[in-house]
Design brief:
84% of the residues lie in helices and 0% in strands. The protein contains two helices and no strands.
Length: 43
Amino acid sequence: MIGLSLAMTTPAFDPRKTRISDASLCRSRLMAALLGLISSLRR
């Protein structure tokens, strides 16, 4: 819930920075999911 409230308040300050951090967060989550899938397939 902390991330949600942060995402609501931050765009008022710098929308461009929020968009970049949001994209990087999405990318890191995707990479983590891929790594988890690969590691589970190797077992």
